[in-house]
Write a structure and sequence with these properties.
By secondary structure, the chain is α/β, with parallel strands linked by helices. It is built from 12 helices and 7 strands. Helix 8 runs parallel beside helix 12.
Length: 306
């Protein structure tokens, strides 16, 4: 695989603005953004966090024995595989996408030829093959950084930066009232206890790893992104060696501006006003319960007065 693999992985607890951030980065001429949630996890992920978060969102674990062809099939990548294999079953069925899974697998196996079956090499091959196989992807000839997004994968930020020497992790954090109010709109919403436990573990991991890997693990508040997307995102991109761009001002799909982020996430209109209104959808009892369960972290993110 020619050239160093430069990579930015976005992480965010559910309904914390990860999809919005990925779509804001989508049109940048120096970035290759994955079409949907990357979901690189495999069924071999088994640890103390497995009962809290789905394995599809985690940094992958591959078996010691096997072949690259078998490794490719272990990567869950649910959103993309459903869209390109059974489009009628996908929420993105109306989103144009010329990407053949068999072609992507062939490229993946070819990229792994003669290379050790390390997690770093397999992940790199997956993102490179996906970009190459995506036939109608808008190209600028200036792309240099691959962008992925997998909810809560920031809990594995230490593994990501240790595996990939040119990788960065961006944790997006949203106030817990708005995020919980939005997750309640899902077809199968999580209980307040389940959701807030996941929220706190993700945010604690973000703080921990941003402190340990200060140059490569970053945190942005969703509130700051929607208030000034160009300014907020340009600051992080500068640390990666990527210039600012006007495209950061609007969410897009394959370079085409979107009127709303949905169906990439529950958040439809990413504005400060909509964010505040969403928090107001909770009852007084729910607001108090969210505060009680998140109190130790609120001050760290500037949410103590909300």
């Amino acid at each position: 695989m020619a050239g160093e693999f430069r990579f930015l992985m976005i992480s965010a607890m559910y309904e914390n603005g990860g999809n919005t951030t990925q779509r804001l980065l989508d049109g940048h001429p120096e970035l290759i953004s994955y079409p949907f949630e990357s979901q690189p996890g495999t069924k071999y992920v088994q640890d103390h966090l497995t009962s809290l978060y789905p394995v599809k969102y985690r940094w992958p674990v591959f078996p010691l024995s096997g072949t690259p062809a078998e490794d490719y099939e272990t990567i869950i990548d649910e959103e993309c595989k459903v869209r390109i294999k059974t489009p009628q079953s996908s929420k993105f069925r109306d989103t144009p996408l010329e990407l053949d899974d068999r072609e992507r697998k062939r490229i993946f196996v070819g990229l792994m030829e003669g290379r050790p079956r390390t997690r770093a090499n397999l992940v790199e091959a997956f993102f490179r093959a996906s970009a190459e196989a995506w036939k109608d992807r808008t190209r600028s000839a200036r792309e240099s950084v691959y962008v992925g997004y997998s909810p809560i994968i920031g809990v594995d930020a230490d593994k990501i930066v240790e595996d990939l020497s040119h990788a960065h992790v961006l944790n997006v954090v949203r106030n817990p009232w708005s995020s919980y109010a939005d997750t309640k709109k899902r077809a199968l919403p999580l209980s307040i206890a389940h959701y807030i436990t996941g929220w706190t573990v993700h945010q604690h991991s973000a703080l921990t790893f941003a402190g340990k890997y200060t140059d490569r693990v970053h945190i942005l508040r969703y509130e700051d992104i929607v208030a000034d997307p160009v300014g907020a995102l340009s600051g992080v991109l500068a640390k990666i060696g990527v210039a600012s761009a006007p495209s950061l001002a609007r969410p897009s799909w394959n370079g085409k501006v979107l009127d709303q982020v949905y169906p990439w996430g529950t958040i439809r209109v990413p504005t400060p006003e909509a964010n505040k209104a969403t928090a107001g959808e909770l009852s007084a009892a729910e607001r108090d319960e969210v505060r009680r369960r998140t109190e130790p972290l609120l001050k760290a993110f500037g949410y103590a007065e909300l």
